[in-house]
């Protein structure tokens, strides 16, 4: 019997296997899953963002049917804004040029939003190449630069120019995939000047419900730390400009609650700021857990009673933290700290899986932290159980990838 010829798709992303960044992990999973219906090709950056040779140990090897075209680039400091910006543009042109040489009429492209200049470059390419463009939006650029403090005002002429050309790129897409309803609102505003119909699909990220499972408190790191008599709150993830972690740490300190301990795992540009604040104030009930690998997620996420997901003021609609869904898988209630009405805030309230606090109301944060007592354990267990059930029924890998694949095939 004659073999069916699959439609060809190009996944274009800076980060990919074996990098452990969330975007790399997500696009690697997408690549593997999409081989069911597509001839999958990936155009990406080098093996590792930081130049190391680390390998994914928690995962089976990449599907052998996936074809990878890597673009190497000079090593630069990702925490230096000037060097990061230079790398940002250089890699964008490299990825664009590789795709330009290889794409043919009728191909499908699934584009990540990092590096952002590719949104414009592929939008321009649509004028001289006939292909179908899908954009998977994890971060909304350049609006996120305001929240990060890179640009101070939306009236800045450079910011307005960047927004104009990036919005033009979005308007050339055939399909935009967003992570939440709040992001959909924002993206609809970005493409208000579109000249054609653009489909917008809301498809969230997922949790690894098979590898991240609940662990009894008595078997977790909490016992190893000797903190069984404390309520352990945890932040695990990127400690960057838009996570609002400085406000969280300050409020936790002001809460001055002897029954609680805040443990922070991860790294990022704001780690030094947090570390300095802890040392200057001689804070004993905030500790840094360091960097952890993806294969250590189960152990780390189970080392708490309440998991914190936070976003700084101004981040409404700009991001939906992917760590949320692995927290659900670990059966942990969520304390969301950010802007009310945002995707995770609505999820937490609607499903009764935790608490949602407005990051702009500092006293509200302080009051929450100060009023926690050991009696709250009776409330934590049912919220955690609901979280795990929700992850299995709605946010598992198989469910989300099935929806994502179908959304693209239905456009094609």
What would you say about this model in short?
The protein has 412 residues and is α/β, with parallel strands linked by helices. It is built from 15 helices and 13 strands. Strands 3-2-1-4-5-6-7 form a seven-stranded parallel sheet, with helices on both faces.
List the helices and strands and how they pair.
Layout: E1 7-13, H1 22-34, E2 38-44, E3 67-70, H2 81-102, E4 108-112, H3 117-125, E5 132-136, H4 143-147, H5 157-171, E6 175-178, H6 181-190, E7 199-202, H7 221-225, E8 231-236, H8 245-255, E9 260-265, H9 271-280, E10 286-290, H10 297-301, E11 306-310, H11 323-329, E12 334-338, H12 343-351, E13 354-358, H13 362-371, H14 377-393, H15 397-411
Parallel strand pairs: 1-2, 1-4, 2-3, 4-5, 5-6, 6-7, 8-9, 8-11, 9-10, 11-12, 12-13
Helix pairs in contact: 2-3, 3-5, 8-13, 11-14
Describe this structure in words.
- This protein is an alpha/beta fold and 412 residues long.
- The protein folds into 2 domains: 7-206 and 396-411, Rossmann fold, CATH 3.40.50; 217-393, Rossmann fold.
- Helix content is 40%, strand content 17%.
- The protein has a 7-stranded parallel β-sheet, with helices on both faces.
- Strand 9 (260-265), helix 9 and strand 10 form a beta-alpha-beta unit.
- The relative contact order is 0.11.
């Amino acid at each position: 019997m004659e073999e069916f010829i699959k439609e060809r798709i190009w996944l274009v992303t800076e980060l990919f296997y074996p990098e452990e960044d969330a975007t790399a992990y997500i696009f690697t999973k997408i690549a593997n899953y999409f081989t069911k219906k597509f001839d999958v090709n990936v155009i990406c950056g080098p093996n590792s963002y930081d130049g190391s040779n680390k390998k994914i140990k928690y995962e089976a090897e990449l599907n052998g049917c996936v074809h990878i075209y890597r673009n190497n680039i000079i090593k630069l400091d990702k925490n230096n804004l000037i060097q990061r910006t230079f790398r940002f543009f250089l890699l964008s042109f490299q990825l664009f040029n590789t795709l330009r040489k290889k794409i043919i009429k009728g191909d499908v492209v699934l584009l990540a939003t990092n590096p952002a200049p590719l949104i414009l470059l592929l939008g321009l390419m649509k004028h001289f190449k006939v292909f179908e463009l899908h954009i998977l939006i994890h971060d909304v650029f350049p609006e996120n630069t305001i929240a990060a403090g890179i640009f101070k005002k939306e009236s800045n002429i450079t910011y307005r120019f960047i927004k104009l050309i990036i919005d033009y790129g979005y308007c050339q897409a055939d399909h935009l995939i967003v992570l939440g309803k709040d992001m959909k609102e924002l993206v609809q505003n970005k493409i208000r000047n579109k000249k054609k119909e653009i489909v917008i699909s809301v498809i969230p990220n997922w949790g690894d419900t098979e590898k991240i499972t609940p662990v009894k408190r008595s078997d977790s790191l909490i016992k190893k730390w000797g903190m069984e008599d404390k309520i352990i709150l945890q932040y695990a993830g990127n400690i960057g400009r838009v996570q609002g972690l400085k406000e969280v740490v300050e409020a936790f300190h002001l809460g001055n609650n002897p029954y609680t301990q805040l443990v922070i795992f991860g790294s990022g540009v704001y780690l030094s700021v947090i570390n300095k604040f802890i040392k200057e104030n001689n804070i004993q009930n905030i500790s840094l857990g360091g960097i952890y690998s993806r294969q250590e997620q189960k152990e780390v996420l189970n080392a708490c009673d309440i998991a914190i997901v936070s976003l700084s003021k101004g981040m409404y609609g700009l991001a939906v933290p992917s760590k949320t869904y692995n927290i659900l898988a670990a059966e942990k209630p969520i304390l969301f700290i950010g802007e009310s009405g945002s995707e995770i805030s609505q999820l937490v309230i609607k499903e009764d899986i935790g608490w949602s606090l407005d990051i702009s109301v500092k006293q509200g944060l302080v009051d929450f932290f100060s009023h926690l007592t050991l009696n709250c354990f009776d409330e934590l267990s049912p919220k955690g159980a609901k979280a795990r059930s929700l992850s299995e029924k709605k946010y598992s890998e198989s469910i989300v990838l099935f929806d994502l694949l179908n959304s693209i095939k239905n456009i094609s």
